[in-house]
Amino acid sequence: MSPPVQRLRLCYAQTGDARYVGHLDTARFWERVFRRADLPLAYTQGYNPQPRIQFASALPVGIDGENELLDVWLNETLHPQVWIERLQHALPPGFRLKSVQDVPLKAPAMQSQLRTARYSVDFGTAIAGDALTARVQHLLAEPELWRPHHKRKDKIYDLRALIDEMQVEETGNGTLLRLLVHSGSQGNARVDEVLGALGVADIRHHTVRHELIFAAPLAEGAENGGQG
């Protein structure tokens, strides 16, 4: 099995009905897209080789992603523009390819560099701006906010420590909550947990992940493509 000779980074949007596709299904979806586009995928070693595909962060189900990132390794070199043209024809509604960039083969894994993520939560007219502002101010005034871990109920974590920014905006369409929260291996704040702590999780809303922000530039010379 030949070693990879090229690593490419995709920036893509996953919106509309596609936001209901879970992470494992999204990974399988991209693998099918790559095969349909006849890309020379590189594979892992071992008894059960898998295409070398790596996401920056799993997109939570039900949330639109405007600048999602994944890396894929190839065993033949392709010009990124050729790659874009091949893939555009294979993507269904809800997925939109925004950019493809070369990345050094030895660049750090995106997950290890991910630090925060920027979200917006649109409540429309379901809650008044001043009412949400009061809830936000109350939560931000708390020095700690201990919550049970969503996977391990015997473990607790401080949700307040994972919230960097929280602001309320009143727009022409209603009330918008903007969030900057920790994301990645060093701590991850789930938006649904934040909304639960605010007491607004059951109010109709639409959430968008706008940006993934990293500790340092992911790859020298790579285009921003949704990175901080």
Structural write-up:
With 228 residues, the chain is an alpha+beta fold. The protein folds into 2 domains: 6-107, Alpha-Beta Plaits; 113-214, Alpha-Beta Plaits, CATH 3.30.70. It contains 5 helices and 10 strands, in the order E-H-E-E-H-E-H-E-H-E-E-E-E-H-E.
What is the overall shape?
elongated
Spatial separation of the terminal alpha carbons = 36 Å
Helical content (DSSP H or I, runs of 4+): 10-25%
CATH class wording of the largest domain: Alpha Beta
For the record, the count of structural domains works out to 2
Q: Can you tell me the CATH superfamily of the largest domain? A: Pseudouridine synthase I, catalytic domain, N-terminal subdomain
Number of helices: 5
Average residue pLDDT: 91
Order of helices and strands: EHEEHEHEHEEEEHE
Q: In oligomeric terms, what are we looking at?
A: single chain
SSE topology sketch:
Layout: E1 6-14, H1 23-36, E2 53-55, E3 64-74, H2 80-88, E4 95-103, H3 110-113, E5 114-124, H4 129-140, E6 146-148, E7 156-158, E8 163-171, E9 174-182, H5 191-198, E10 206-214
Parallel strand pairs: 3-10
Antiparallel strand pairs: 1-3, 1-4, 2-3, 5-9, 5-10, 6-7, 8-9
